[in-house]
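Morning, I've got a small favour to ask if you have a moment. I've dropped the whole record in just underneath, so have a look.
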Amino acid sequence: MYLFADDTKIFKVIKNSEDEEILQKDLITMGTWSDTWLLRMHPEKCKHMHIGKQQRRTVETPATYKLLGNDLARTDKEKDIGLIIDPELTFEYHISEKIKKANQIFGLLRRTFHFMDKKSFMLLYKSLVRTQLDYASAVWAPYKIKDIDRLEAVQRRATKSLPGMNNLSYPERLKILNLPTLSYRRIRGDMIELYKLTNNIYDEEASSFFKSMEGCGTPAQQQRKHKNDIPAAFQNIVTE
């Protein structure tokens, strides 16, 4: 069970009906704990989600869980600390929402500031627009070209709106503004997170995901042997 402010999350790997029963018992224990400490939860605000392969979610009968005597609603997407989680962890809905929000904010800026020079653009864009596309990107960074292009299109349009930039290519605009591409920023962010994980900057449990590759075969053999030890979000950074 994880607690963050007034949010509570409980989870378990479900392989059979016995695992479902164990999770239900945990929910009962959690409900009792909340009552004991006068922090009663609201079952109508609580939901449950199965994260896994589509075939498993549709073929098998979904379990019904209860909290404090009330059935928990099933959901296919849920916002958690600013990140929209979906059952297959594709984050496509999250990406679409972030693109929509970033475009809305930049549209508001264009309507508010009738003239925007390079200095004011950089200040407003970096603080209000780009932050929408950067937040927690190490978790949801896209791997599909269509999603990468959709995200990059936000910065393409924004930089093109500046006076004198309309006829310049995207790389030329970035060079003048001294801006990196959004995909570069995501890769850089992944590398920073990877460094922190492998150097115990977070905690030893997080670092345990990454095992030493020293002294065990050729680089190619090491890569194949240890790829499964690396969280999927960082496999491209480590192996490429």
Q: What stands out?
A: The chain has a mean pLDDT of 83. The two ends are 35 Å apart (CA to CA). The first strand starts at residue 2 and ends at 4. The chain has two domains: 2-75, 89-186.
